[in-house]
Amino acid sequence: MTRVDGRRAAAAACAVLLLQSCGTGGAPPPALPYTDPGFVDAGGFRLHYALTQSTDLPSEIAGSYGIVRRSNLAVLTIALAARDGTRVAADGLEATSVSLTGLRQPIALARHDSASGPTWLATVGIRDREALTIEIRARPPASGPEIKARFTRTFHLE
Q: To which H or E segment does residue 17 belong?
């Protein structure tokens, strides 16, 4: 084998290895399902939370809270309940968004009272396929233990 033939054989072998490392060319596997339960328990209390894309809300509900439905906007909903399911007011409640780079921003929560008890709402800007982490801290009434929740959601705005 000549020197030129040896180089060609080595180049062909490298090309084959590169092609094999590229995969089969099929579609990527589907995303894992969202499995967060939407609540955290501590002591005799349960902290419920949800982050829903505003376009998934019926227009009547969004409008009743003054929310303009947009694909790049999500609604954070938080409620605190005793173990018997009765909603209670928190002695303190705060939520923070955490970006992929670790930037922490407080979320302005608005309390809404109804016959079933208080609920806190906030709107949060979202981006296509960018993970958004939300941290919640609640202090239940009557010396209940502090409750913390942390969850991450990714939205597909297509």
A: helix 3-21
